[in-house]
Amino acid sequence: MSIDALSTILLIPALSAALLAILPGYRLTAKLNVVAALATFLTSLSLFVVEPVSGQYLLMDDLNKVFIVLTTFVSFTTSVFSASYIQHEIETGRLAPAFLRFYHAMYQTLMFAMNLALVANNIGLMWVAVEMATLTTVLMVGIYRTHEALEAAWKYFILGSVGIALALFGTILVYMAARPVVGEGLDGMVWTVLVKHAAQFDPALLNVAFAFLLLGYGTKVGLAPLHAWLPDAHAEGPTPISAVLSGLLLNVALYALLRFKMMLAVNSAAIAPGPLMVTMGLISVIFAALMLYRRRDIKRMFAYSSIEHMGIIVFAFGMGGPLANFAGLLHMTMHSLTKSAIFFAVGHIAQVKGTQKIADIGGLTVTNPALGWGLMLGVIAIVGLPPLGIFMSEFLVVSSTFARAPWLTVILVLGIIIALGGLFLRIGPVMFGEPKGKTAPAEASYVPMFTHLGLVLMAGIYLPPVLVTGFQNVAKLLG
Amino acid sequence: MSSLQFDIAHLLAGSLVLASFMMLYQDRLYALLNVYALHATVLALSVAWQAYVQQAPHLYVTALIALVFKAIIIPVALHRIIKRLGIHREIENAIGIGLTMMAGIGLVALSMVVMLRVTPSADALAREDLAFSLSVVLLGLLIMVTRRNAVSQVVGFMSLENGLVLAATGAKGMPLVVEISVAFSVLIAFIVIGIFLFRIRERFDSVDVQELDRFRGERR
């Protein structure tokens, strides 16, 4: 295999993970982490210029190009945030310098695993990559070694492994369905081959396979009945990891699900995966929206908000069609950018105030105006108020599905409104209430947060035509 | 394939389901580990037989991993961990044994109905293997939900994973089987070496997950 952009975005994180595991000194490694993430991002941009050829193991098409660029961009900005976050953690003694070597190596390993899952052209390889991403995040969630962090990591580990195991069973069933048609051996797991021949696969076997894949990868997406790991993992791990989990890892699992949905769509005799996804999406939206009202922990609250938004995205993809797919893609991009920006703000706020309890944080717009207004802007974006990007994508989701399924759309809108009320109710005192907690000025890096929010604002006002045509191509591909 | 070859494969896969049932009613950690070692040995035999029948030499690697890693190293390591931690030997079941066994029978029936119905076109051996392996997977899940002890949950997960390996080897000519079984072994090694157990031990003086549950939910 020759070295092209596709293998480079895998090689950079893999090599830097090895390097960061050896190098001492957190200042140096934090910088190297940023450099490696930037290099990966720049390489991913080159995919637009020279399109690499897909092989038996690696795949490049319009769909994963969007995911790769988004993933590498958010990993880069998160690594910038992580550098200043980590410095504070070292100074307050919450993390020992020895752990940081491990932390940075794991960060790059996670990047490698996510990129591998996105470029894999082999459903077995994709599965191994998602497993690896799960494992690294489990280790990172438990890094503080407090009671809560260990419980969160354990819960995440057990539920994540069960999900991963079910996904593997589904993968084996897909191979079983493919074997009579494409023959034994490697071809039976190559995605491009599978999708070409999927029309002749045994529909009954495909149906069962998809049920397992939906349950398995759906656990990782955080869909409602299977979400139990998600709030704990977000709340107890280091905040850069919460940002990566919400902004990226959920998307990677969703990507796996979309690939299999595309395969089922080719086979007309198999069940339509759409209604299943719509149902799970709606349950997630309503459930998470209601759960927002009783939250006491600020990171946990935004974790529930992530479940809600993944629900909206899965709903949009479940409805299908060029418009709804376009809306789902746009919403996914906007959510990744906004939610990671929110976690950047929340991370610094929790450091300044020394707590994550909503009741102990107050009057942020007075005590730390930049952080406070940054978070406020993020919240305004995430609840879907105009003129920000999420308003536009939610509007598109609703308008593109209303004609086809008015009642379902009404339920969705209801969920969005309930979530809006819950978030504003909780965030109001945090922003404008009586100032509480420590008021020390924050040593924060504002650049990643405001870059993300700026992009979201820009997308809400003006979407560049290049982006629109790009997304339209992907939406067509998704069927 | 001769009918004798088929019968032996059938026998071994069936024994794996039986071993899963045996794990369901063990109420001591050491006994549970011994049954798990038996479970992994049966898996190794079954995979080796598949390797012979399918004439797929790479499957012998998977069988060897199952035998050495899962049937010997892991149980021995867990034995030592249990001894060193001095954790109580009783396993608290969340539900009674009778009810658990009934649920197990129900799950096996369910997997037979589902898998045999959807795979009429596949060859007989693969069909039976898939049905049995789904049973083992579901029984593994049942073990995980009925136990409160962290060690026995891990054992439940490992038995579930054995079911997946059975399914992967039963699917004739499936690529990456060896790689996947290695990936799973890494996953298991990660836990069993004790990252979690040791830390949990260090912090809670117990590996009973119920202790963890005290900290569940949000800090108040």
Rg of chain B, nearest Å: 18 Å
Number of strands of chain B: 0
Largest sheet of chain B: none
Task: Give me the number of helical elements of chain B.
Answer: 9
Instruction: Give the H and E element order of chain A.
Output: HHHHHHHHHHHHHHHHHHH
Work out the helicity level of chain B: over 70%
Protein name (chain B): Hydrogenase-4 component E
Organism (chain B): Bradyrhizobium forestalis
Subcellular location (chain B): Cell membrane
GO cellular component, one term (chain B): plasma membrane
List keywords for this structure.
heterodimer; A: 479 residues; mainly alpha; 0% strand; globular; B: 220 residues; disordered C terminus; transmembrane helix (chain B); Hydrogenase-4 component E (chain B); cell membrane (chain B); transmembrane (chain B)
In words, what does this structure look like?
The complex is a heterodimer of chains A (479) and B (220). The longest helix of chain A is centred in the middle third of the chain and has 36 residues. Chain A has a domain of 208 residues. Chain A has 479 residues and is mainly alpha-helical. Chain A contains 19 helices and no strands. Chain A starts with a helix and ends with a helix. Chain A is globular, with a radius of gyration of 21 Å. Chain B is mostly helical. Chain B has one domain. Chain B has nine helices and no strands. The longest helix of chain B has 28 residues. The N and C termini of chain B lie far apart (64 Å). The C terminus of chain B is likely disordered. Classes of the chains: A mainly alpha (479), B mainly alpha (220). Chains A and B meet through helix 5, helix 6 and helix 8 of A and helix 4, helix 5, helix 6, helix 7 and helix 8 of B. Chain B: It is a multi-pass membrane protein. Chain B: It is found in: Cell membrane. Chain B: Keywords: Cell membrane, Membrane, Transmembrane, Transmembrane helix.
